Amino acid sequence: MSVLVVLEQTNGQFHRMGWEAVAAAKELGLPVSIAAIGPAGEAAGKGVEKVYAIEHADLASYSADGYTEALAQLIRSVNPRFVVFPHTYQVRDYAPKLATRFGRVLVSDVVKLKAEGGKTIAVRQLFQGKLNADYALGAEGPGFLSIQAGAYRADAAGTGSPEVVPFAPQIAPGTIRVKAEAPFRESSRAVDLTAADIIVSVGRGIKEQENIALVEELAAALGGEIAASRPICDAGWLPMERQVGSSGQTVSPKVYIAVGISGAIQHQVGMKGSKTIVAINKDPDAPIFEVADYGIVGDLFEVVPALTEAVKKLKG
Amino acid sequence: MKIVVALKQVPSRDSALHVPPGESWIDESDLTFEVNEPDAYALEAALQLKEEHGGEVVVVTAGSEGASASIREALAKGADRAVHIEEEGLHTADTLAVATLLANAIRSESPDLILTGLQSDDLGSGQTGVVLAELLGLPSATIIMAVELQGAAIRVKRELEDGWFQHVTLPLPAVLTIQSGINKLRYATLMGIKKAKTKEVRSLTAADLGGVPASQVACEAVYLPGRAKQTQLLDGDAETAAAALADKLKFEVRVI
Ligand SMILES: Cc1cc2nc3c(=O)[nH]c(=O)nc-3n(C[C@H](O)[C@H](O)[C@H](O)COP(=O)(O)OP(=O)(O)OC[C@H]3O[C@@H](n4cnc5c(N)ncnc54)[C@H](O)[C@@H]3O)c2cc1C
Ligand SMILES: Nc1ncnc2c1ncn2[C@@H]1O[C@H](COP(=O)(O)O)[C@@H](O)[C@H]1O
Q1: Which of A48, A147, A182, B132 is the most exposed place for a label (fewest CB within 10 A)?
Q2: Is B97 exposed, middle or buried (0-12, 13-18, 19+ CB in 10 A)?
């Protein structure tokens, strides 16, 4: 009985969330090993039993079909009780396919693993973080789990000198059906939010494009930059380059003021590192308050203009 | 081309959620519902492909009788017909079970393309589309921000992390999970709403499709998450709270 953690790497660089997944896997109370697609690299220094280094020319660039096939072969050969992934975009793309190939369900985006009365419980968020749910995992293996960004500490993966085991999967011609081109970035970002000390960020609570001006006035009074949650940029109310979150920018200003933003995990990963977080939201249970240092529960249409005035007054 | 859109109805975003004591799901009786956000974008992508290349758009929904409201909305926007797998309490079914139901309903349609949203707002597993693809033996690509039909293949733009993107090309038939913001949503016209009434909605039960497979995980409790951080809440009317916050920003955070 063991736990296999599948790491993600690009050009020899491991995704940080992989170490968080290793930390989570350690909660399962079984020996933990790592599967790396590509060289063992940094994984060979982590506090685990073994590192399986999966090598195949067809895996040089990512494909859901290639990764699924290779990992299915490794899992059949190792026969772990649990297979644990970091819940990255890449994992979203293939892990459900892999679990399905074993007739198993993937319990995705888990925020906590705990043992309770002989059962293993995986805690997940529902309704974009408004509620948590405890899922009891069945007794049958392998159990597939993916771990949410930031749920565990990367350094809890520990250090050690695991045995490195090369693994060479067989990938039949025609297995990989999807043809991938090189990743790219959209035209260079005109705004660098990462350099800003003060960010006022606006979410769907603002209701209409015209109302964005309210938040712009607050940002101007504070001498800060304006940013937004995804739906605001999707709607074209602010340019994409002002989006904060997992598919936007990651910022860590001195103060981040979230106005009418609920605080879904995909937003939080982009701003959790801010020194001070302020939330203005009418819903006292909004997940944004979980990371806020200061909060005002109220109607942004009253609070924001009042705050702009108060800031102007203090500045004299 | 024939396009199937898997469309889910979920509680409206601003819903106040309550879990009755001793129960492990929210009280749905006072809630309003809407089409899951990325599913609306998936439908729009399907309608645009149909307008450009011809064909048919079929909506497939698994959910309670009330989900017919979202189905009607999709038909009013231009979907040609719908399949409604009428089943109560599907929130207790795991992703594999729901995807199996959907796969069993979609298989006989033999679509060229299946579009799903990338994630549901209520359960949020973010994987039904990929599971569906594997069950049907089809290739898939996720978090799609653009689609372009190229004969018997489709070239799509995948969103990666941190503002990166990638184009990939899949042979058809294929499954794509659509990201919010891929296009601009249309509204249903009065004419569309009228027409929708005459469109076919085939109603199936889970039993017609081989039943709801047993779930491998069991939801035991649903509850408000605990607070990790002590938030200093600033009380009073808007002026008082705002003035107090401005003071904090000046004297504690020191940014004024
Ligand atoms: C793969 C993936 C990637 C994603 N990437 C990102 C990303 O990079 N960035 C991002 O932000 N999101 C991202 N998302 C979307 C994310 O999951 C959320 O849907 C989004 O962040 C919600 O935006 P919001 O908080 O503005 O809107 P909502 O969740 O609708 O929240 C609006 C908030 O406003 C409050 N409100 C309403 N009216 C008022 C009022 N009058 N006064 C005060 N408060 C009010 C409400 O209480 C609510 O909390 C991604 C999702 C996925 C699945
Ligand atoms: N009951 C359902 N009926 C129709 N489509 C669904 C259902 N559940 C999930 N889906 C589709 O699968 C996508 C991802 O859902 P999920 O895996 O729950 O996050 C949704 O956006 C829908 O397109």
Answers
A1: A182
A2: buried
